[in-house]
Amino acid sequence: MSLKADEVLGHIGAVLNDSQKNRGILIHAFQKIQEEHNYLPGEELERLSKTLGIPMSDVYSTATFYKQFYFTPRGKKIVRICTGTARHRMSREGCRQSPS
User: Fold this and answer.
1) What total number of domains does the chain contain?
2) Which of 11, 19, 36, 46 has its CA 20 to 30 A from that of 75?
3) How would you write the chain as a 3-class SS string?
């Protein structure tokens, strides 16, 4: 994975210092790592921390802040069951039937 801050940040990168640029590409880096591995492996986060010069605690706290990032491998097919209040319009059994 090779990420260049100036490529990711575009013209905004011209007004940021190197530390800000590195922090600015964290989310993009997480997305690339997760796209490749289907989750964020600890080894990759440590390598990212060293590469960008950002403490591992900051890398981890940023990744855990966003619900879209996962720290354990996920399946290829994700099944979600609606548990919202609008479910009262459907029967519980209807929501949880196996897909055909």
Assistant:
1) 1
2) 46
3) CCCCHHHHHHHHHHHCCHHHHHHHCHHHHHHHHHHHHCCCCHHHHHHHHHHHCCCHHHHHHHHHHCCCCCCCCCCCCCCCCCCCHHHHHCCHHHHCCCCC
